[in-house]
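The material for today's practical consists of a large collection of protein records. Getting from the letters to the tokens is the skill we practise here. To make this concrete, we reproduce a full record directly below:
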Amino acid sequence: MGTIAVLLIAAFVVILNETILNVALPHLMEDLHVDAATVQWVATAFMLTMAVVIPTTGFLLQKFSTRAVFGLAMGSFALGTLLAALTPSFTILLVARVIQAFGSAIMLPLLMTTILTLVPKERRGLVMGNVSIVISVAPALGPTISGFILGHFPWRSIFWFVLPIAVLALIIGLTRLKDVGSRGELRLDVLSVLLSVFGFGLLVHGLSTVGAGGTQGGDSDSFMGWATSAGGGAVILALGVLLVAAFALRQLQLQRKNNPFLDLRTFKHRDFTVSVALMAIAMMTLFGGVIVLPLYLQTIRGLDTLQTGLILLPGGLIMGLLGPVIGRLFDAYGPARWPCPVRRC
């Protein structure tokens, strides 16, 4: 089994995990005795951790071997999954989801970096098309699989379903992965780490709170009550923006020494910047729908978990089936031309 195939399987598992718990939120509220405002932190904590960890992956990928980074990612993910399967309380479940998110945040950049290193330029469109199967089908399958499991078993069975697949991927990866790319002697810039952790963390939390309209509850006289109110969310969002801007300025300063924590010079290329913006919009649309629709379909429309999962399935399947086709068109025509069989097009 090739390096990219191993990473694709692992990425499929971690992305599947991102949405597999969405249709189970009503079950969590009933079993763990928490309200809707509290149970949302299962998703919010996951996103916060992803936002904090992803900026650090560039350093990890250049500092350590591919196998070591893979072991860290899938080992953390498997540990978090086991803890979630055994969780006795909502607090432990939240910790487990944070550990899972830590591994997930490392896996996707590892997959993309490996593809760009190993795959020739003329075949990258096709390979990225295959990657889109993982990115689009996995989150669509998550609610469907979860809905089937919840129709027959307790909600903890969701994690028992994911755990053996994660462990198998970990074992295969540790035995078959080879180091790719080159490692350098990088120095960890502590200020960049702190700015990224607090900046991106506060940014995501602020967006989550403002987007919820400050309806997450809490005592307005306490700090947590203020932090989950609409006004508090707006202040946190503004602070997050300022810290992210400070993080960017710090990277520009480090680039003069050719040792940035996160190299921002790639955004000088117009095609890259436009592609990242379009990808961000597409991912917000995809994951936003996958997160919100299960709550609407179950709480407002009264559908069961399996029906909810099946409704979410077709969109992801269509995206996955079109991925390889679009990839071949990209290899043949590039990103800025209309596909046309006539040479003069």
